Amino acid sequence: MSQTTATAHMENSADRASLLRSSLSNRATAIEAAIDSLLPPVPGAEGRVVDAMRYATLGGGKRLRGYLTAEVASLFGVEPARAYRVAASVEMLHAYSLVHDDLPAMDNDDLRRGQPSTHRKFDEATAILAGDALQTMAFEILTDTATHPSATIRIGLVAALAAASGAAGMVGGQMIDMDGEGRALSLPEVERLHALKTGCLIRYAAEAGAILGDADLPARARIAAYGRDLGAAFQIADDVLDATASAEELGKTAGKDQAAGKSTYVALLGVDGAAREARRVAEQAESHLDVFGAEADRLRNLVQYVVDRRS
């Protein structure tokens, strides 16, 4: 590659990154507004748990999962208001998982997004209830006719989220993660752990946009495969970040995986090997988008963002 070509490539990459950051920011603002509208403060004694729910979901985060839902939905011509309701729903489900993950009985983390974890800001009992309520509200939103007039599509969203978040998905992955602390897991075991704990919800976030857009089965399968591989790339990159980034960059405690004796991609492959694997899986994720042409460029750029990020 000539110096001129290399410079042009770098400039093009910078342009794509800038456009993606703008797109992420715009959608994050819209998702935040949707959550704020769907989850207003309430008076009375129960207001404390709602305050904790709002604390856990509002005021920060990349909104990667919500962005995926909204961006894929736009690929299939979904009305933005419907897309942002589903995006808000998946962000609430994700927030519930983080609230519970941070508890002393789980990962025992005092920081989340650079702020005190929900159980530190409120108390453990309130955090548990807030997580429970965020989980149920995620499904409540999906069942509302404002999300989609078709009961078939609403049921499809509910069924897919239930599968992604239960014992065969995110919860099962968390169980494997806890069970694996202090002992060496093989690479296939680590891949399965993260495919369930992290990957299933990211896959759902992408697939939800296709379900909402009533995409045909081949298109939905390609989007699901993209989400699956994006989730894998995200987690491998996350392991690299945990080993190399500071707490200030991460917005949470750094180095916790190693301190807890967890088996990670970095522990098995080394930092450089894990970074190479993240890029390999990222290329695989992009390949699933070939049939969608230029309209899927932001989803392609998102793959690079996931593996290049520092937080």
UniProtKB/TrEMBL annotation:
GO terms for cellular component: cytoplasm. Belongs to the FPP/GGPP synthase family. This is Polyprenyl synthetase family protein. Pfam families: polyprenyl_synt. Its cofactor is Mg(2+). NCBIfam families: FPPsyn (NF045485). The keyword Ribosomal protein does not apply. It comes from Gluconacetobacter diazotrophicus. The lineage of its organism: Bacteria, Pseudomonadati, Pseudomonadota, Alphaproteobacteria, Acetobacterales. GO terms for molecular function: metal ion binding; prenyltransferase activity. One of its GO terms (biological process) is terpenoid biosynthetic process. Keywords: Isoprene biosynthesis, Magnesium, Metal-binding, Transferase. The keyword Metal-binding applies.
